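hey m, so remember when u said the tokens were messed up on ur end? i reran from scratch. heres the input so u can diff it against urs
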Amino acid sequence: MNHNYSVWGTVESIVAAYKIMDENGNIVPDVESQVIVRRMLTALIRFFADNELLKVKPFDADGKLIDRQYFRSEFTDEGIALIKRKESVWLDSKASKKNPPDMKILEKALAEIRTGK
């Protein structure tokens, strides 16, 4: 059994999946959705980095996202607990789509995890 499974794919691989059909019936990138999803996922990774939930540095010295896959071993136990408890709720929320994304759902869940609730 693989204990070091993939937790997050690359941002660009997820973003690339957002497509729409144009007026000619061609499948084309859904640029509007891609912008929102890229911003949302980058904010999620930044939240995990800022709260020391990742064991790797997801941003380079210039603050640019290093787009890569993330595996179980690269998250703290609190990070995995937060993913299990609230990540999908946040991703599906209107808060995640805001500019900038509203992190309150994750902040509250992380505080509960850290206080043992």
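this time it looks ok to me. The chain has four helices and four strands. if urs says something different then somethings off w ur setup not the seq
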